[in-house]
Design a protein that fits this description.
The chain is built from nine helices and five strands. The longest helix has 23 residues.
């Protein structure tokens, strides 16, 4: 009939996907379908199913898409600013939720929550990042700070900077964390040497390293668990 507009074919698909999410929950959706849901609001007039599948292939999975650098999402993923913000906001919300859970109890008593937070924040980073968790005498989290951002295989941390920050915050212990973009979390000789240098510097101010954790896509490695501390 003249003047009648045909709805785009993806309109019904969006409605069905939203309804399935509400009735079955996120476990009832494939990764590309959950990614579609995140893109609906930012890309209202386009079939985003092919885009969602392309992003998963390009960035190696759902977590890789959320953790990707905004510039890479634009250049390699073909996303506009609104879509990039939508994805990065989800990552930020998830990190904030897990960080709050970590902060609400002694860190050593909530190790699983801590590892979940660190994996989300660090395992898909494409460059090395060194993070320090500063703890008080009850092992509660005082601060969580990125101390150094480096290259694909190096992020040097200087013991004097660690000691200075520990004293500024009044911390009595730290947990040292960094990622291996290669995916393999096993510590290198350089990692071991750095850890011992920092431990020695901190011992002069009666501060201990509870652990040094390396995060990789293949899992995580604990210096304490490996007998290296």
């Amino acid at each position: 009939m003249t003047g009648t507009k045909t709805k785009p074919h993806y309109t019904g698909h969006r409605d069905r996907l939203r309804q399935r999410f509400l009735s079955a929950g996120p476990d009832g959706l494939a990764d590309y379908e959950l990614l579609e849901l995140l893109l609906f609001g930012a890309i209202p007039r386009r079939d985003v199913k092919p885009l969602a599948k392309q992003l998963l292939d390009e960035f190696g999975g759902f977590a890789g898409v959320l953790a990707a650098d905004p510039a890479h999402l634009e250049q390699r993923g073909g996303l506009g600013p609104s879509a990039v913000v939508a994805l990065k906001a989800v990552q930020a919300a998830a990190e904030r939720m897990l960080r709050q859970q970590v902060a609400e109890r002694p860190v050593l008593g909530g190790w699983e929550q801590l590892m979940a937070y660190l994996r989300l924040a660090m395992q898909d980073q494409t460059t090395e990042q060194v993070r320090l968790l500063f703890l008080d005498k009850k092992n509660a989290l005082i601060a969580d700070e990125v101390m150094q951002q480096g290259t694909v295989d190096q992020a040097p941390v200087y013991p004097r900077e660690v000691v200075k920050r520990v004293l500024e915050l009044g911390a009595t212990a730290i947990i040292l964390v960094h990622n291996h973009p290669s995916g393999d979390p096993q510590p290198s000789e350089a990692d071991i040497a750095m850890t011992h240098q920092i431990a020695l510097a901190l011992s002069s101010v009666d501060v201990v390293i509870h652990d040094h954790v390396i995060i990789g896509r293949a899992g995580q490695a604990s210096f304490r668990g490996l007998g290296l501390l």
